[in-house]
Amino acid sequence: MKTDLTDTTASKVNKALVQGRRAIGTPAVGMVLTLVIVTDEENAYDALKAASDAAHEHPSRTLVVIKRVSRSPRDRTQSRLDAEVRVGADAGTGETVVLRLYGEVAEHAQSVVLPLLLPDAPVVVWWPVNAPLDPAKDPLGALAQRRVTDTYASEQPVRDLATRSGTYTPGDTDLSWTRITPWRSMLAAALDQVACEVRAVEVEGEEFNPSCELLAMWLADRLDVPVKRSLSSGPGLTAVRMDTSCGPIKLDRADGSLATLSIEGQPDRAVALKRRETAELMAEELRRLDPDDTYASALRYGVDRLKSPLSAPAPRVPGDSVAKGERGEPKSDGRARLALPAPVEAAAKAPAAQATAEEPVRQEPPALEPVRKATTK
């Protein structure tokens, strides 16, 4: 059952929900939570479809908040609320209310959403796009126990990760973190099979994918070893390589579907690491509504502490000066300091050592000249 309400109020929307449940013969409320989706008109369909699919596992009342931009200054001063109420087969296993806010009411979306929340039920707010950098201080985010963002939809995901590490509040989470759950499980299981010490890790993936940075930060935080972030053509995460005292451990996924786990002394194994849809990610996030301490610890590790190949040092010209860091290495873009390889360093020192060795030979004639004069006298 679907009901359209134009220029309405929150109380009329609540009334339409009750009438819809009675019309389909289910007056009781069987939802376990309220999911608030804050999005724009362009991404509303995909977000609502993902929420509807996730509702098969978590029946919920879904409130879609769409802030419509008024074209003229006169329209911006006129507030209006349009609602689309769906119950029964049109809403799947839950209830759906699409709220379109116009004018000044768009700046006070929390006043519209608050009367529509299920009583005594947890609230989850999800921003598929255009998420605030501090979700807990957002007026809608303040109503929720869990706040879900997606850094992958950001224009500068690495910068947003660094910002959210300072504004993290218990209850915040990111779908970019949810995407690496199978990777974390597989890597943890691989390390449980060997009794080795991990000395270094390399995480390989496409450039603008925050899941790669989050996985690298999680490994660096948990293993307390240097982690290098390298680039590939994707899709998404492609490989994790660990240098251990018992030999290399590698988890390689080149096609985005099937991965190969290689452990020294054991046969290679094929494991399923398919890239999951948004509905599966949301279903996983809705399974637990308590703070994710592991995500908080990995996020606070800091993306700037990872070794990154994004900026390579320019070739040195003889006579040019290069700014040095604390250990005499060329300064990078601030994300990492890459050590000079040993063969290159030895080759760079070789001409200097050769010049030092030749210098006493050039000084021999002046040193012998006084001896020759003394002999003549």
Structure description:
- The structure is a single chain.
- The chain is of the alpha/beta class.
- The chain contains 11 helices and 14 strands.
- The chain has helices spanning 10-23, 44-54, 73-76, 109-113, 157-167, 175-178, 181-192, 210-223, 278-285, 293-301, 342-376, and strands spanning 2-5, 33-39, 60-67, 80-86, 95-102, 123-126, 146-149, 172-174, 198-205, 227-231, 237-244, 247-252, 258-263, 269-272.
- It has an 8-stranded mixed β-sheet, with helices on both faces. It has a 6-stranded mixed β-sheet with strand order 10-9-11-12-13-14, covered by helices on one side.
- A hairpin with a 2-residue loop joins strand 11 (237-244) and strand 12.
- It is elongated.
- It starts with a strand and ends with a helix.
- Mean pLDDT is 81; it is low at 310-377.
Q: Helix and strand layout, with pairings?
A:
Layout: E1 2-5, H1 10-23, E2 33-39, H2 44-54, E3 60-67, H3 73-76, E4 80-86, E5 95-102, H4 109-113, E6 123-126, E7 146-149, H5 157-167, E8 172-174, H6 175-178, H7 181-192, E9 198-205, H8 210-223, E10 227-231, E11 237-244, E12 247-252, E13 258-263, E14 269-272, H9 278-285, H10 293-301, H11 342-376
Parallel strand pairs: 2-3, 2-6, 3-5, 6-7, 7-8, 9-10
Antiparallel strand pairs: 1-4, 4-5, 9-11, 11-12, 12-13, 13-14
